[in-house]
Amino acid sequence: MNYILKGWKVKKNCSVIILAAGRSSRMGKPKFLLEFGNGASFLENIIRQYDEFGSVNIIVVLNSDGIEKIKKHPQNLPPKTQIVLNQHPEYGRFYSIKTGLQFCTNNYTFIHNVDNPFARKKVLDQLYNARSEADVIKPAIAGKGGHPVLISKKVCDYIVHEKDHNLNLNEVLQKFQTKGVEVQDDSILLNINSHNEFIEFMKK
């Protein structure tokens, strides 16, 4: 169900979890604090896009160092943003996903990596509009898969109750019906992991 908000923003029955609990050892600083071209941080830019898209629940998963960093570098985030602590970042990415999904109460959830500052509305709309066609909706360009991924509550509940913390998300998602949605936006392939990659990204 959709609801019309002030300013004609459509509120959608979906959450997003933003994964930002990695050590960022190759970057030298937390990726979520990297400055985007518009002066906002990666985190601010991602959240703004999901807010404008209409996500009703925005969850950011950080490690303890990230929590301290965000206290020292306050971000311009909408009030609905929830900052969640991953107490065991050493368990890896799947545990961060499990941690974030525990706070999702909607029928659908986007999983977004903080190392990609783009969440363009057209892509999000295409994925969300295909939500009834499968439990896992993935964007693709020229047949190559990217991010973010949209999952149903069925998948969310499965992951939350999975006792093995060390699983690979893609292997788990293969258990469910999946639909690829072809988009015309190569930003879905972006993955900025090192300082050199960030420098090259900022040159574009």
Describe, in plain words, how this protein is organized in 3D.
With 204 residues, the protein is of the alpha/beta class. The chain is 30% helix and 24% strand. Strand 3, helix 2 (64-72) and strand 4 form a beta-alpha-beta unit. Helix 3 packs across helix 5. The longest helix is centred in the first third of the chain and has 12 residues, at 42-53.
Pairing-aware structural class of the strands and helices? Answer: alpha/beta
* CATH topology call: Spore Coat Polysaccharide Biosynthesis Protein SpsA, Chain A
Instruction: Give me the number of helical elements.
Output: 7
- Tally of distinct domains: 1
Assigned CATH class: Alpha Beta
The main sheet comes to: 9 strands, mixed
Alpha carbon gap, first and last residue: 39 Å
Low-pLDDT parts are: 1-7
Show the helix and strand layout.
Blueprint lengths: L2 E2 L5 E11 L21 H12 L1 E8 L1 H9 L8 E5 L7 H9 L6 E6 L7 H9 L6 E6 L2 E2 L3 E4 H9 L7 H5 L4 E5 L12 H9 L1
Parallel strand pairs: 2-3, 2-5, 3-4, 6-9
Antiparallel strand pairs: 1-2, 5-8, 6-7, 6-8
Helix pairs in contact: 3-5
Brief digest:
Helices cover 30% and strands 24% of the residues. By secondary structure, the chain is α/β, with parallel strands linked by helices.
